[in-house]
Amino acid sequence: MNAWSVILRSLAAIALLAYPALVYFGMSSGSPRQVSLVLLLVMAPALILRLRKSSQQAVRGLVAVPITIISILLIAAALDGTNYILATPVAANVVLLIAFGSTLRRGTTVNRDNREQPVMPMIERFARLQNKDLSPDKQAWCRMWTWLWCAFFIANGTTALLFAMWATMKWWALYNGLLCYGLIGIMFATEWLLRRRRFPDLQKPRASR
Fold it and tell me: What is the Cβ-side half-sphere exposure of residue 46, based on CA atoms within 13 angstroms?
């Protein structure tokens, strides 16, 4: 990974995390079109780079999130509309819900080698990036937490929609730029703590080969 790639990815990550704050401060001094164009200039190059290098099937479905954000920003820039910008967190949660929920169906899918394999829950895909051998209990744990994340996306997306429709810009930015990330952190911390208690073997260091 070269320096430009690192810079672009870093800028995109910062822009996504600071999106509500950027919108809040941008809208107080500029138009929706100007804010959308600035965000596009920051995120679009990294998105293109990410699409070109998206080779891991486990995370490929999540590329739809930045694609959705870019699409909404293009519409906001073309129509100079504030509502489209405010709807971005809602759309992101909808896309994540679809990405996670689609992996909970029973059945098989075709992998890159044109071979059928069981549909794998999203959390299990992430887990197998670290450990390819998962016991049935751990697979069930991953499926349960995929369901829990789906419930979180429904609740978070609904809240973001309510704030977009009826709250002031300040409260919209506060929820989507601070409180939302706090809730996500609580989800990660809770899963991590419960996983360590449920599977004590994960705390044991691996024997060196």
Answer: 21
Q: Which residues of 41-55 are buried (b: 16+ CB within 10 A; e: fewer)?
A: ebbbbbbebbeeeee
Cα–Cα distance, 137 to 148 (Å, whole number): 17
Task: Tokens for 203, please give them.
Answer: 């705390």
* 147 contacts 102 by C-beta, under 8 angstroms: no
Q: How far is CA 46 from the centre of its chain?
A: 15
Q: Phi, psi at residue 193, to the nearest 5°?
A: -65, -45
pTM score: 0.84
48: left (phi over 0), alpha (psi -120 to 50) or beta: alpha
Distance, in Å, from the CA atom of 93 to the CA atom of 91, rounded to the nearest integer, reads 5
- Which pLDDT tens digit goes with each residue over 166-178? 999 889 999 998 8
Collapsing DSSP to helix, strand or coil, 2 comes out as coil
pLDDT (tens digit, 9 = 90+) per residue, 8-41?
Answer: 667 666 766 777 877 888 777 777 888 888 888 8
